Amino acid sequence: MTSKKHARILSPLAFILLITFVMNAMIPVVLADPSYTVKTRTSLDSTSMTTQRALVRSSNGTLHCVYSKYDILQASIQVYYAYSEDGGVTWNEELVADPNTVNQFWPCIAIDSNDDVHVVWAGFGWGVNFDFTNIQYRMRTPSGGWQAQEGVTDVDADQAMPSIAIDSNDNVHIAWSGYGWGINTDYKNIQYRMRTSDGWQVQEGVTDNDTSDQFYPCIAIDSNDNVHVVWDGWGWGTYPDGVSNIHYRMRASSGWQAQEEVTDKDVDQDSASIAIDSKDNVHVVWHGLGWGTNPNVANIQYRMRTPSGGWQAREGLTDLPFAYGQNFPILIWSMHPTSSTVRTNVPESGYALVYSGQDEGGWKVVYLYSSDLKWGTKEAPVGDFTVLLWIGLGVAALVIVTVLIVKRRKVIT
């Protein structure tokens, strides 16, 4: 039988164990992937048809997001930009394109070493070939606001789904899907163009498939300024007919390297987004059928490619049974800016993305990051309430244990 003296001695220890148990039990709740709503009353397509960055982070921690939505005043779909200075809790919104009463689609965002924001999209109503969607570009500086709009393409065939990245020298790299290029002009193929200080360089073909369309390119650049592109398309692998799969290709200083398959599945895999971490590992997310416990619903999938080991095993990030699933994930990535030698948009570990999700209230744009996300040497921020809760628990535990120890000593003496 335990004596009263032993009971008094064990009480502080038991309390410490209890506090430890409670705090450990809370960790999965506190550190579970958090999310905030950027904008409600959007649509399934608000982050779709892009598959690339809709989210970047500037050197001071400000988040920048682009998306499309129906504009009541212009009676058309327009491209919007929003920024958040409080970690994604609240957002301020601006119209990107010059006033235009025809539809604009597929916005994508990047940021350079000066915290200038670069946006590309495709839309009607520009240039000589205004009846076709062509690729548009615009830059926003911290001090000067939106600069003049530029046309990346002006051809008499639809160009769509642009993706943008900026290299270590602030050169702009854009990939998109379009008709009218190469030998197979009747099929959409993946195209590429770079903008240097001398202006826009010649267009290059990433693919020239002669049987099927290629869609949704996404572009990123590694520490050696190699260009990495993923996309989805038919006409490849074991299932070439009627099924889209995810594909990858790299452009080194010597030119475009061999194409690689990220997936080769008998059901559709769509809308791949790419990011590269500080170790030059390639991260790809997409939405696809045929996985997890809800194979008939599109859910978010993930795969990593390491420089030494190649493609690693696929993982499912969501496995939800909603009628329309989770769609169009877009990873955060940008080579810039650099703050105290840390590239703040190149995660050291973990991931951050936005996607179109559904709950009881309908469609919304969701911001999601993993519990192990690190921006350089800094942990991903947690909410103020969580920080105060941890501090409060720590102080309370210290006070109670101190009081119990003092009481035990008084009884013993």
State the main characteristics.
14% helix; mainly beta; 413 residues; disordered N terminus; Neuraminidase; 2 helices; five-stranded antiparallel sheet; single chain; 40% strand
How many domain units?
Answer: 2
Percent range for helical residues? 10-25%
Extract low-pLDDT stretches.
1-10, 13-32, 378-388
Mean pLDDT across the residues is 83
Quickly give the structural class: mainly beta
The gross shape turns out to be: globular
| CATH top level label of the largest domain | Mainly Beta
CA-to-CA gap between the ends?
23 Å
Our count of helices gives 2
Radius of gyration: 25 Å
CATH architecture title of the largest domain: 6 Propeller
Main beta sheet: strand number and arrangement? 5 strands, antiparallel
Beta-strand portion reads 35-45%
Number of distinct beta strands? 32
Write the CATH fold name of the largest domain.
Neuraminidase
